[in-house]
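Trying the structure run again after the queue cleared.
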Amino acid sequence: MTDKKSVVESDVIPVMPKITEHKLNGSNYLDWGKTVRLYLRSIDKHDHLTDDPPEDDSRQTWLREHARLFLQIRNSIDSEVIDLINHCEFVKELMEYLDFMYS
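Done. Tokens:
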């Protein structure tokens, strides 16, 4: 008889969905960027486009939420563009860089 190891729910890393099915490929930046900004506004996270991480007790929560948003955005970018943005660490930095490159 084989032992089945149970998976503890906290050990499961959720897959971050894409914000849009239409991945950023460079030529579609204006529509893609608008969709990302609307999505962030719709979930009341548009501050991640303009603000740096807070320096108070809310920092950890903000960074955790930010990591989820960053992964969702990254999952919405074509692999050829990913190589160009690997240096970006924050949503604000990423969106400013993409805006500089494609608008």
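The first helix runs from residue 29 to 42. Worth checking whether this holds up in the mutant runs.
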